[in-house]
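FIELD: query
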Amino acid sequence: MIRALGVTVELGGRLAVDSVSLTVPTGELLALVGPNGAGKSTLLSALAGERRPDAGTVSVGERPVTDYEPLELARIRSVLTQDNAVSFPFRVSEVVEMGRSPWARTPAREFDDTAIRDALERTDVAHLTERRFTELSGGERARVSLARVLAQDTPVVLLDEPTAALDLRHQEDVLRIARELAREGRTVVVVLHDLSLAGAYADRVALLDRGRLRALGTPLEVLTEPLISEVYRLDVEVLERDGRPLVVPRRTHPHDPR
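FIELD: result
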């Protein structure tokens, strides 16, 4: 599991993350949501051990994340960042294979082919294996980058806006995959902008606002009309479908005589 205790990160003289404490147990899918600039990606990078907090601690398992050697950490957690850039024209198969690099010279290398094949199929990019990454669309690049993360095959999976460049079908596919990973016993944290996706798939939702943790609980507990309207400064309606919240902006349209 992952535990953050009083995590504070200062960026450019402001508190991007302000005294956030939370625990993500094994087998849970936690969605980090909040407006632009709320601190979601910064918090995720601290959970990943990629950014050292200015105050507070992050633990993975029973050890501080700072105690892990980089290679050891890469075998425990995988990270999908917003920036999926690959400068060189690697083939898709080569990009996904990069996810197996932490397992080189270990007994786990015998699972490379299976892990890569499963990741390609799970993300619906098996048909792209011979294409150059630099020739792909934004959505295809996002799915290939996710396949690389899945091929890494770690007990902790951290995803930063994995649906940002995807069409409706592949957004659902990505969250379904994240849900399956949690059911397999992994710890999954995903940064999302789509509140309805978070409500549909997450076990719990953490709502950030200007660096602070405003609410943490089940989707129905956190994604309420008063709280979301206040934090996003937008009047919303929350509908319940199959026990899950669906967040819809309240829109007023001028009468159109046509």
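FIELD: remark
The first strand starts at residue 2 and ends at 11.
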